[in-house]
Structure formats: structure tokens, C-alpha cells
Amino acid sequence: MALIDDVLKGGNIITGLAVGATAVIAWPLVRPVVRPLVKTAIKGGILAYREVTRLYDGTVHGIGDLATEAIEEIGPDLAQNAAGKAVEEVGADLVKDAV
Description:
The protein is an all-alpha fold. It has one domain. Helices cover 93% and strands 0% of the residues. It is built from three helices and no strands. Helix 2 packs across helix 3. The longest helix is centred in the middle third of the chain and has 62 residues. The chain is elongated and about 75 Å long. The N and C termini lie far apart (63 Å).
């Protein structure tokens, strides 16, 4: 139990050497079991990353489509005027805050 406490508290040189020596000795014994598990975990992480990327791309594309439809419905002139007014209001607020 003292070894575990030493490791969790940062340990000392003896604890580090003991853990390192144990790892060197034990690695050839546990490698056949651990390697496939680690490999499977890495594959799962890669697949999860790919799916999240696809979901993100689909979401961004969908939002872009919704924005395009909204601009078509209100007309491009009104959309530009509304965006211009919003920029002017935000700019005015920033100037007031800066002064």
C-alpha cells in the first residue's frame, strides 16, 4: 500500500525505479493481451472521430441551407439592409462602450 501511496504522491527515485523495472519485466508477459485491446481502442477512436466529423459537416451544411432559404424568402435586398443595420448597431454600441 505504501508503494501505491508513493506513486500517487509523486514518489521518489526508488519508487520510480521499482515501477520501471516491473514494467520492463512484465511487458513481455502482458503484451499479447494488451496490444489487441489498445489497437481496438485506437480503431474505435478513429471511427468515432470520423463520425463526429461527418455529423459536424452535415450540421454546418444544413445551417447554410437554412440561411440560404431565409435570404431567398425575405429577399436579398432586405437581407443586406438588415445585416448592414445590425453591423451599424453593433459598431455604435462598441463605440459607446469604448468612450
